[in-house]
Amino acid sequence: MANGKIGVLVMSYGTPESMDGIEEYYTHIRRGHAPTPEQLAGLTERYEAIVGGVFPLRENTNRQVAGLQAALDAAAPGQFGCYQGLKHARPYIEDGVAAMAADGIKQAVAIVLAPHYSTMSVGSYMKRAKEKAEELGIAVAEVESYHAHPKLIEALATRVKTAYAALEAAGAQPIKTLFSAHSLPVKIREMNDPYEQQLLESSALVAEGAGVTDWAFTWQSAGRTREPWLGPDILETMKETAEAGYKGVLAAPIGFVSEHLEVLYDLDIEAQAEAGKLGIKLKRMDMLGTDPLYMETLADSVRDAARAAFI
After folding, report:
1. 262 assigned to a ligand binding site
2. What is the CATH number of domain 150-284?
3. What is the average pLDDT across 239-250?
């Protein structure tokens, strides 16, 4: 091990560094195919709506990586070194692995800033990381998921309770809590993919921790492709909720750990506008960001994986 350290490859989806990088980012998502002018305009409009010319989204991930490093240093001083690898933006996953190799790292733990495992999401990150690591002679242990970690559940439950109390104070009762995550193609069900079951398990644990009994799980941010995606979408669920007589909806996007486009636009702008049309109040829980309990969840998961594989 270089300087006695185990590398930690911290992976996430990625976001452009500025408005100027949107086309390159979108082209990478489309596997090298440039977006049409209409597609590019649509995505650019979404970013303009949420960032207003200032682009802080990349900093959220940078802070989380730094927060994980601090949590690891507190628990195991000098034992781990964190490296960032993004799926669709620089530094790419392969860049993060190459940086570890350049530092002489021979053993590493790979973890994704997403609590729930799917072969189509976390699995694809791990595949790229392991392929590059094998090429460069680095042994990699994987953290597949941490969706039921007690510290994660506690952090999410606290956020749900806070948002629920705010809706109550605003007189928006009765309240329905809607847990959500990024939709994936329906075909994952044929693959016995654990994604949906893990999300339902997390939702039940968080609801129990928050003392919430009236809740449902729904999907959001489905891709615009010909194949069917998991539903119903949160906009549909909100409509049904309003029709059932609810006055308040608590949005709990537990599939996300930071203020992504899917949170800041799909929920804070699109779903909020829908709530206005439906005559109901919508309150979103705060995202995890660098919450100490989330950082400890990640650190615990990394250390467990390292112990099992290397220590």
Report:
1. yes
2. 3.40.50.1400
3. 98
